[in-house]
User: Fold Lipoprotein from Corallococcus soli.
Amino acid sequence: MRVLKGFVAAIALLVVACGSSSMPANPTLLPGEGLLELPLLSTTTAGRSYKLVGATFVITGPQSVTLTDTTVDSVSTPLMAGLYSIQMTGPWHVERTDAPGQTVPATLVSPNPMSFTLGEGETRPVRFLFKVEGDGTADVGFRVDHGGWISGSITFDPLAPGESEIFAELAGTTVPFVISYESAVVDRSWGMVSVETSPITAQFGGASELLLKQLVPSMNGNSMHLQLYRTQPGGVMYLPFIELGAPGAPARLQLELGVLSVINDADGYPVLQPYSMQGVARVVARENSGDGYLQGVVNGQFSPQ
Assistant:
């Protein structure tokens, strides 16, 4: 058994739109407001610092605000409580602080735009996740790691007659998502590769309170156990059923995924590299009369490391 060492590192940064200047460190909140925070600078445990530069962030919801100044190291803004969408635009790039002006290759894997909720009196970080080359573990703001992810979109079925209205906001929509983890432990034995992840972070696009208020809190902080079986080169590898969310939680996510065009190593084990995937997803929600679910088709990418 070994700790997975990947070729990418992840950067999770907190992004908020608030105008062209930073707010006071501890702004006074009015009744009905919450606080969003934005560190744009992060230092890894190895002493390597990164910064996001040149991005514009547009927030829409009960209030609409925009951030165009990313020269500061940290920004925060109060907003009225509610459901929001945030989109990153502009010629953004990531730099190492010891090499200003030199772009670090980075790939955005979070949904863009991404949705979030803000409660009255709450301080809410909103994380856009990037994958970059690098190593180490960062503090709050950016997070640099050796993890993997499952990302793509779920196209949900229309709401059938008699089905619960709790799923009405999702039915017939396509929702982008990412499920990311910082690290994993890998074991190769008995003809399969087992991947046990660190706690996951889940992000969704769209405007579903069911996803943001019930599903995401149920998923975040839990781990995934994935088993990758030997298959014929170029064949389809089906991941065993995955259920994400604490037992008894208000909502949970079920995944049945097929990984396409699998590549095997010299010993016949699946190579841990990014793969295209298809499959089925179900959002299961608890109601007074029991559990109900809404099903959808998943298309996206699975990167074990």
The CA atoms of residues 218 and 247 lie 9 Å apart. Residues 209-219 form the longest helix (11 residues). Residues 1-24, 135-145 have pLDDT under 50 and may be disordered. Residues 1-146 form one domain.
